[in-house]
Amino acid sequence: MLKTFSIGGVHPAENKLSANSAIEVLAIPQKVVIPVSQHIGAPAKAVVAKGDVVKVGQVIAQSGGFVSANIHSSVSGIVTKIEDTLDSSGYRKMAILIDVEGDEWLESIDRTDNLVVDITMSAEEIKQRVAEAGIVGLGGATFPSHVKLAVPEGKKVEVLILNGVECEPYLTSDDRLMLEKGDQIMVGIQILMKALNVNRAIIGVEKNKPESIANLEKLSAKYKGIEICPLKVKYPQGGEKQLIKATINREVPSGQLPLNVGAVVHNVGTAFAVYEAVQKNKPLFERVVTVTGKTLAKPSNFMVRVGTPVSSLIDAAGGLPEDTGKVINGGPMMGKALSSIDVPVVKGTSGIVIMPEEQASRRQATNCIKCAKCVSVCPMGLEPHLLSKMAIRQMHDKLEAEKVMDCMECGSCSFECPASIPLLDYIRLGKGRVGNIIRSRN
Amino acid sequence: MNLLKIAPSPHVAGKHTTQNLMVGVLLALLPAWAASVYYFGWGAILISLVSIASCMMFEFFIQKYLLKQQPTLNDGSAILTGLLLAFNLPSNLPIGLIILGAFVAVGVGKMTFGGLGNNPFNPALVGRVFLLISFPVQMTSWPKPTGFTADVVTGATPLGLMKEGLKNGESVNAIMAKLPSHMEMFYGHMGGSMGEVAAVLLILGGLYMIVRKIITWHIPVFTLGTVAVFTGILNYVSPEMYAGPVFHLLTGGVMLGAIYMATDYVTSPMSKKGMAIFGIGIGVITVVIRVFGAYPEGISFAILIMNAFVPLINAYIKPKRFGEEVKNG
Predict the structure, then answer these.
(1) Which residue segment(s) compose the domain that B301 sits in?
(2) Are residues B176 and B307 in the same domain?
(3) Peptide bond connecting A152 to the previous residue in cis, omega within 30 degrees of 0
(4) Which residue range(s) make up the domain with A264?
């Protein structure tokens, strides 16, 4: 019996078209656009100016506070502009634009590819290095990783859980990373274990990645304290709370953090970035991005420098198909539809999914038939039909009482609704308004 | 290249639609319908067609001309109401009454409340109970299963005979000797409404719906289970006065009611616990009416009464929240 979470979940078609495509290094573009906010928290502040020459790995924007992150240049060249530019959020945000010249790296970065297993830094040094290197959660949430490593007084971490689930359809970047960079991920996990002072780590991987599971299980013999936990394929298994429930059978209470049940969760891609930062002195400026879709000529996984335009990735995968309806940044369940493919790849860009025209429209919404399918699939045990109706009627007190803020916006409800009611749209609206009300109370 | 479409997530959808759920229920009812035609002949075919056509026609006209909305016949709900209404009627009911029943079912039971999804009571049962109360004679002359013969022979249903016999002071065993055997009732060889015969096929259809995730097991199991337990206790206490659970489960449309009428999404609770309470309530009321009430059959009234409690059940029985049980941090 495979482990899984107990409440809710849906089964979208997996479509892991790029699962067998090895990671290819994408050519460096001629220009990059590097936003100063690629993370949750305060935006970073630019520390370069127009005309400055920069090298790969150089800090170009300084962290804007504790919950923030450094931004490093992913290329060498000349800074041409620092201005508001369209990014994948759909809005114009502050970014540093660089014209690329050559590929010159900071001398302090170790570019050799031999595996460095010994961890010489202390826990404190590790935490500092992770912060300096601008590492954020690479699962897509982009939460600054050093904040998760700062365990407050009185709280004890019992287990480090690694998220290798990749439950979104189409996405395969974590899968390929676990298959091709397994050793590095393992060392990265041990580094994180040292920083958190735990001796137990569990890597959760969905069963639809048998080769990755086999590879990690083989490697775990060499690395003490790391277990592999194959999980049932069910969306959203990769949600932090669902992963903790499935692996160690503890439920994080509403409004609380995983730390309250003794767990810290990091994505496997983040563990890989931690390895590179600590063992190779390499900051975070590139990541694996899946480019995929049924109409795309060559679904692929690329190692991409931050700031590369999404159009370059699509070109390298065969070019944008004629009948494209939507280009999604992320997976089809929670990803954001892009208004332009000229936006840059950032630290949180896990994948680009091309949807053909005929799959790009929603079905016509009809009457709610009270089938309660939305209730049965909600992984947080909420009642989406009720939250949606309350949001429309602006019943904010009742929304808060019905725990609308627990909604993780996974999209299972809208996915399952037979009447094609856009439940999540209304719930997001309600969440936004209730969130404002709650914030204005403090 | 065309402009890119943007929309909030999710960008994919599941396979269930209102239409294919309704079609699933219709498919589940097909075997029982075929049995009905086998036992009751042309009458069965005629009632089904008239009922379905009338329900569709009334829904279309009310939506298009009275409410000035786009007709939604292709969601299949009017067709399903039509078939379920037919299943609740004797196969020799005059055509005019069927049309009237369809009007009440769709017009009063569904459209007055705002159409699909807004009605508190099961529309087919609203139509059926209206006909039963307004035309009791025609609604209680049940054809015997004579297949495609020219003459329809009518008589009371086994449940009706049991009630009459008990009132006259006969013992249960004496009455049972005059009725079809349990096996015959299981396969539908008895008098009754179109849908109350052929328990085996109704159950088969129910299993099909559960496998296809159209309904869950809760309402049918709790309803039938309650009927079985309640009548089982009565029968154990006084076997001469109260018929046994098997008899009660196979007669009077409780199979049809528990599996197809009580499970109607719109008029049933939305949580599993709520569904259990709903099923138990239906079971209790059905048996009380059958055994202690004036009517031989109780399930139609039982379902309508419990329909009235559904908003209350939905308001107070909530699903289990994630993280609810951990009290301390």
Answers:
(1) 155-316
(2) yes
(3) no
(4) 123-280
Tell which of A251, A280, A309 closes a domain.
A280
Placement of tokens 């049980």 in the chain: B325
Q: Using one digit for the tens of pLDDT, what is the confidence trace for A370-379? A: 999 999 999 9
In 10 A of CB B151, how many CB atoms? 7
In a domain? residue A256: yes
- The helix/strand/coil state of B143 is strand
Q: What are phi and psi of A344, to 5 degrees?
A: -85, 155
Look up the pTM and report it: 0.92
> Which value does ipTM take for this structure?
0.93
User: Which residues of chain B make contact with A245, given a CB cutoff of 8 A?
Assistant: 322
Domain tally for chain B?
2
Residue A33 clears pLDDT 50, i.e. is over it: yes
How many structural domains is chain A composed of?
2
CA of A153 vs chain B CAs: smallest distance (Å): 15
Closest C-alpha among B305, B309, B287 to residue B297: B287
Task: Give the pair of three-digit tokens for residue B243.
Answer: 């018929």
The answer to whether the CB atoms of A241 and B323 lie below 8 A apart is yes
Classify residue A269: in a domain, yes or no: yes
AA letter at A294: K
Residue ranges of B 14-53 with Cβ closer than 8 A to chain A? 14, 16-18, 20-21
